[in-house]
Design brief:
2 copies of one chain form a homodimer. The first copy, chain A, is of the alpha+beta class and 341 residues long. In chain A, the strands form 2 sheets. In chain A, strands 1, 2, 3, 7, 8, 9, 10, 11 and 12 form a 9-stranded antiparallel sheet that branches. A 3-stranded antiparallel sheet of chain A has the order 4-6-5. The first copy, chain A, is 38% helix and 21% strand. Chain A has one domain (8-339): Beta-lactamase, CATH 3.40.710. At the A-B interface, strand 2, strand 4, helix 6 and strand 5 of A face strand 2, strand 4, helix 6 and strand 5 of B. Chains A, B: InterPro entries: Asparaginase_II. Chains A, B: This is Asparaginase. Chains A, B: Pfam families: Asparaginase_II (PF06089).
């Protein structure tokens, strides 16, 4: 059910006095009943949730008792939800999870890419140490999937296949949390090889509202949701890393807001105490438009204080630097959310 | 004179069966009289030409006799027009120009960034050799500007300042070639510190049509234009480098088409024998949309054969790979040019 695409101008990128580029997209803000509280563009826009689904995808592992069985630390649980920087702590923690399963790096099927965090990538190169799948930003999610294999007594072979019981469990959990039918979810393949799930933004926002405020969910699921939120509050570094927005947002709001980026311009967040979820999509996929849009939407919804926004200024209105690090422009929000009456 | 922004959907990025992202923009195709032959979106869209201006910016140096005075090779002239890869040949050639001026790398004001071509960046790191301004993709342009300082007997101090005689000459040459008044050109600052010039796309396309087919220009300018086109035909590697579209386009068409990318989603090209120029802007600045749009526009204008397009398939419809290099989607053109009757 692809939606018609009536995107709205969200972000301007200036150079000197001119707007050099624009980014369009869609925003949905909902409460735990799924009522639309705010929007831009088409809040029903149907798109892949990408890595914003990771927090939801961690639920089955906790529901299955994986945290107890493998004595997962908050750091390890947060890493299962992460698109991490590939810093040494991230790689080490992914390996620690695997060791608890009696496995090692070779069990992962996520492939390799250089650490997101450039100083970590450079340090790895200088060290002469090999780049491994542990450095893949998704290694925690994959380790969590392998842990779920153990809990479900499913084979760890082909755990990335859409037909594998673990991926079927992912699909159904995403559908339940989003309040949509599994049949309505189109699948694609992520950068790391596993299925990704397409849902309307409003449904993704609902999943995040419920994740943060799960009191109306079945008790076992509610506990899993609380454990995930709690783990990220305790160990925000492990969901992203140095200089990353997802980490800073938790730190600056002292855990009042938990957010997660996804590739190709997706963001989702929950404000647990308010029972609010937000999801957004930049239609061209640009990461540079993601955080300015998220911070601005939070401000307009009065979910973030001006003081907190000031601490996130580098994400809200980042400068455009030249190669000599002089500011030659700015990336700035240019939208006004439609608020529900 | 910013134009109203009625952009058109140009490129779709698919994942599985879904369109995950779209890129919008504008295209102008004109002849040497400036008559519009084809368009998409707003062909008068006013934006920074960025590095597409480099071929035009090389004109004053050749007009001033710089090629003879410094016995510039085709490789060196092409490098003056380049956004090069920072491969060893590029850095060496930039240094060779500087040596002919009695200068060295320290005369450049372009700043440093890692070579665009990742294997070159990695090799540099492994070698322990320092990253220098010679590796900046604009080092050839800056070396050319310093050569023009010599020809104009202007100071090499602050040659990047908008008020410097060299930058004033750049402004007036861009204005003349584009057929617009210098006053109509807004200035910004490029990544490399020098002024960039905003013009309507149709005017940028006209500059490229004239560059390739300069017979109606004053003789000295016409000779300069011919020398630039000839240098890039002879040494296409020096205008970009390994695996780069600008280089491959010249190679595949055996010099029949000369094109130049610019940052933030700008492309311009000339088809000299047809007296045609084309300029385009991706409104969100995405480089991944640039080459698919350029190849598709050339095909639709019947300026590129199907066989040539097939040799450029990796630029025309690149796959979206996952981390294991499996195709999970495709980047594909989704527009139809409006053709003049």
């Amino acid at each position: 059910m692809p939606s018609s695409c009536v995107s709205e101008l969200l972000i301007e990128v200036t150079r000197g006095k001119l707007t050099e580029c624009v980014h369009r997209g869609h925003i949905a803000v909902v409460d735990i009943q799924g009522r639309l509280l705010g929007s831009a563009g088409n809040p029903e826009f149907y798109t892949f949730a990408r890595s914003t689904a990771k927090l939801v995808q961690a639920i089955p592992l906790l529901e299955a008792g994986g945290a107890e069985r493998f004595t997962l630390t908050p750091e390890e649980t947060a890493l299962c939800c992460a698109s991490h920087n590939g810093e040494p702590e991230h790689a080490d923690t992914a390996l620690a999870i695997l060791h608890k399963l009696g496995l090692d790096e070779s069990a992962l099927h996520c492939g390799c890419h250089e650490p997101f965090y450039k100083p970590a990538a450079d340090a790895l190169k200088r060290s002469g140490q090999p780049l491994t799948q542990l450095h893949n930003n998704c290694s925690g999610k994959h380790a969590g999937m392998l842990a779920l294999c153990a809990c479900m007594e499913a084979s760890i072979q082909e755990y990335t296949s859409p037909a594998h019981p673990v991926q079927q469990k992912m699909l159904h959990t995403v559908a339940e949390m989003c309040g949509v039918s599994p049949d309505s979810i189109q699948l694609g393949t992520d950068g790391c090889g596993v299925p990704v799930f397409a849902v309307p933004l409003s449904a993704l926002a609902l999943a995040y509202a419920r994740l943060g405020c799960p009191d109306q969910l079945p008790e076992r699921r509610a506990e899993a949701c609380r454990a995930i939120v709690q783990a990220i509050r305790k160990a925000p570094y492990y969901v992203a890393g140095t200089e990353r927005f997802d980490t800073r947002l938790v730190e600056v709001t002292q855990g009042r807001i938990i957010g997660k980026m996804g590739a190709e311009g997706v963001y989702a967040l929950t404000v647990p105490e308010r029972g609010i979820g937000l999801a957004l999509k930049i239609e061209d996929g640009a990461e540079r438009a993601l955080y300015p849009t998220a911070v601005e939407a939070l401000l307009q919804m009065e979910l973030l204080s001006v003081e907190e926004a000031a601490q996130l200024a580098g994400f809200h209105q980042p400068i455009v630097p030249n190669r000599r690090d002089e500011a030659v422009g700015v990336i700035r929000p240019a939208f006004r959310l439609k608020r529900a009456e």
